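Dear all,

This email documents one entry for the complex benchmark we are building for the journal club exercise. For each entry we list the sequence lines for every component of the assembly. Then comes the predicted three-dimensional structure of the complex as a token string, followed by one or two observations. Please use this as the template for your own entries, and keep the labels exactly as they appear.
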Amino acid sequence: MRIEFDDGTLLLQNAPEDVPFAEWDDRVDEYRSQAYRYRSLLEWAGTWTDGDEQATLQDGFAHALEDAARTYPDLDLTPALHIEPRDYQQAALDAWIDHDRRGSVVLPTGSGKTFLGLQAIADAGVSTLVVTPTIDLMNQWHATLANAFGDQLTEPVGVLGGGSHDVTAITVTTYDSAYRYVNEYGDQFGLLVVDEEHHLPAPTYRQIPEMMIAPHRLGLTATYERPDGKHELLEDLLGPVVYREDVDELAGEYLSEYETIHMSVDLTADERSEYDEEYQIYRDYVDSHEFDLWKEDGYAEFLKRTSYDPQGRRALIAKQRAERIARTAEKKLDTLDNLSKRHHDDRAIIFTANNDFAYDISQEFIVPCITHQTKTDERTEILERFRSGEYSMLVTSQVLDEGIDVPAANVGIILSGSASKRQYAQRLGRILRPTDDRDPARLYEIITEDTMETYVSQRRREGVTTSADG
Amino acid sequence: MTPLFIDPDEERYRKTARELIQLFEDHLDESKGELEDAIDELTVADTDYKIVQGLEKLLKDECEFEIVATVEPREIRRRLFEKANDRYPIVRQPTLGEDTQKLEVYSAVADDLGLSLEECYRGMYADLDDNKRLVRVGTRTAEQYASDGDGSTSTTTLTGSSDAEYEHTDLTVDWLLTRYNLALAQAVLYDATEMRIRVWDHFGTVFSYVKLFGLMHRIYPIDADGERVTSTDQAAGYEAVLDGPASLFSQSQKYGIRMANFLPALPLCDRWEMTAEILVDETTGETRRFALDQTEDLDSHYSAGDQFDSDVERTLTQKWERANTDWELVREDDVFDLGAEVMIPDFAIKHPDGRRAILEIVGFWTPEYLDAKLKKIRQVEADNFVLAVSERLDCASEEFGGASDRLLWFKTGGHVYDVVELAEQFAVSPHPSD
């Protein structure tokens, strides 16, 4: 029997009739099986070996099997880490190794799941695909992997997704890109790491582990159980839960102290007249239709109308234009001028809500810039240089929200942000650290006076207070 | 399920299409961002904005946007940030304490890289999507759709295709509006789990595209009414069920993209039907049926390929027209299902009394192509399958498997009467239908 990787499945050529895990494919007159049965098929044939061990021949019996499916290489890696694994991380790793390097580890948020992933990759010693739910998380994994293994790899850490398409021995990707391309690359990895694995049981994403031959698998999550019960599928796809640590067994999260300073600017005369004109178009439309915009269904009703009522469409555009004027008010740049004079010796991160504004600032003030458009490897480079001190300022339109990813700054400047509570709290708490005890970290929030921003800012502050209390 | 097709003759759509095409042409050599801003202006108070955006996307797909910069933009900005870091604060309105740091940083980096100040400033972010320049309003080939569609592994090109065939697409109003309707249908197919097609002509073209887009098939010969018949000798057309390798294990919409990419091959046929199962609810697995046929007036932007694979075929056809025989030479009547692919012999030879033979011409081919062809030929199981083989080829009778007795070796063009003789010898009458 010869097994071959075929477009996300395994084609079993000249297979005996008792071959397990296979279906007869009348289209090609051969048996076919799902790619993730690779390891089980090798075990059945008695040709499975793990590392240096000898093939375990059961009762001296083995099916002749030619493995034409595996194309993934072995790797010899040692993570360049400056931190010792914490006890529970070591215990989780040991448990995973004991379960033949298959299975899930359930650890609370902020407990260093990425760190555990690095150790698992080094331990398995095979090429690895890391799958994450968002581009942000993919970027963070990229930064961490490049940091830990970059010097030991012949090619840089690969990125599949967010506009990049480089697949190398260690590659990071998103669920969406993995789903799209897994049939092409499913034979090139020996270890599959799935971050936030509770998303995996969706019918489409499920095909990611199914279409890969990777004999080693690691699932990571803080919330294993799904309300729909579908987490039961994970055992078949990735292996059983091998380790679990509950929230209260870990120390609480560190939130640093910082001082918030609110500043406001006016619109210029031109901006003001344009703002008022657009805002009025929006207001008139809304007032004449009695939507309760402060309620969710009121706003949904407004949006619905914009798809068939030309005036509604115009009102929506007017609202967007007004918001844009307020967000990118010319005088905010004057304020930024003053702040950069005051803090030019500090480490500052500037937040904006839109890409264009971030790029304008990057060009005006010659400051490195990270947006959703920034390619993963450049993003990693910029953050690394900010960490090392080569860069002391950074402008970003992105939520940089995990300790491992974002180097500390002692000055934050919000030029315009989204009103989302969660984003805001994360932006603040995780990034600002005082440089010394006498000089607290500072957060500046610059809003445009007498515009919709004034309201948003208030709502944002209320959000933070609530989450800080709770 | 029916997509909201638009009527390409309706004046308001024609007007929108005209305006859009004009905007693209006016923005040649300008930035993508400027083009997009101009298009957005069209939809400020227009509830057809979804149609405008759809048309915009289709036009963009036919365009090339390029990074215009003499030095790698990332290199420019890396140097700028390095230099700037020692010079902060860099401010917009320098007061007495601060100098014109900004200008100095830009000039220094421009000098280092041998750029003008403006090239340095503009080049810094020339790789942003918005800053790319519209350099060509052209066309794409089906191979390009296949390779960036879902990265299906197939790289096979259509037999007889060449670059010259994919001539420049004129971006006309008619092209754009019919393309829009096709794109709507394709969008529905993204969630398809299975596709059934019936075609009554252009089999070679259709199955080449099935293969090109990495779809698997089950094929059934059908009569003029679409009813299944037992053999290819009785077939007026073919029904094919299309899906992918993993469809064997579970219902999957993984191949929806491939089906969507394949769809434009169907309007190349004169008569065709398509039904697809569309997954509407992931959790319950509920599907709905989506059906289309040639009455929908969809237009294809794919190539139908050359009618003839080789000069030998063309010559034989011409000779046949001048020859005096009852036997008739017709193209592409039979489709042999060989599992992973199909074999479509070049011709069928038909006698008015019902006898019929199938003819494949093995002309002048490269060794690799010959090997692949021989492999296919050996798998064909039909007693009335005959071959005309060029003597110039490096191969022997034995390599033709079961067909080795039914060969005709020819020197240059092949003679009609030799082929007729072969047909007389091996042609069979169609089985009485059972």
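Observations: Chain B touches chain A through 54 residues (CB under 8 Å). Confidence is low (pLDDT under 50) at residues 149-168 of chain B.
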